[in-house]
Amino acid sequence: REGDVRRGESDLMARRERLAKLDIRPLPPSSRDAYRHSWDQTQARFVDNPADALHQADTLIIAVMQERGYPMDDFEQRAADISVDHPDVVQHYRTAHDVSTRVGDDHDASVGSGVSDVSTEDMRQGFVHYRALFAELLEPEGTEHRATG
């Protein structure tokens, strides 16, 4: 993403150093179970209200990250932090967040008009992307893919 290998490696090293200073921890089993239950409820709501379910999925992701110890600065910082321990799913997070943001923007722009540029299929794809990150964040300690080197 940086445009050149050296700059990309330098950026990754800085992100690793930042994350090493944080207290990122696994969720206790009781929290994992509670979040899974909340996810199941959110997923069930998707059929009746996909936009609301997508927003709730985003809220759950943030809650899990916060309980695990990730700083809740801005989205770009959260994505950068996630990319260190979970490089395989950071793009899922970016894509899902983009869809969620567009749904929010459409809602704000179309209040009263009932028009939305975000299709139900787009929202479904966003939800699937959130689910990939959610599953990764709920992994118990020892099964994470912590970057090394």
- Overall, the morphology is globular
The largest sheet, given as strand count, sense and whether it forms a barrel, is: none
Q: Structural class from helices and strands?
A: mainly alpha
Low-confidence stretches: 109-115, 142-149
Q: What's the rounded overall pLDDT mean?
A: 84
* Strand content range: under 5%
Number of helices: 6
Terminal CA distance: 19 Å
Q: What percentage of residues falls in helices of 4 or more residues?
A: 55-70%
Element pattern in H and E: HHHHHH
Radius of gyration: 16 Å
The beta-strand count equals 0
Features:
149 residues; mainly alpha; 6 helices; disordered C terminus
Explain how this protein is built.
With 149 residues, the chain is an all-alpha fold. It is 68% helix and 0% strand. It contains 6 helices and no strands. It has helices at residues 5-20, 29-45, 50-68, 75-85, 90-110, 120-137. Helix 1 (5-20) packs across helix 4, helix 3 packs across helix 5 (90-110) and helix 3 packs parallel to helix 6 (120-137).
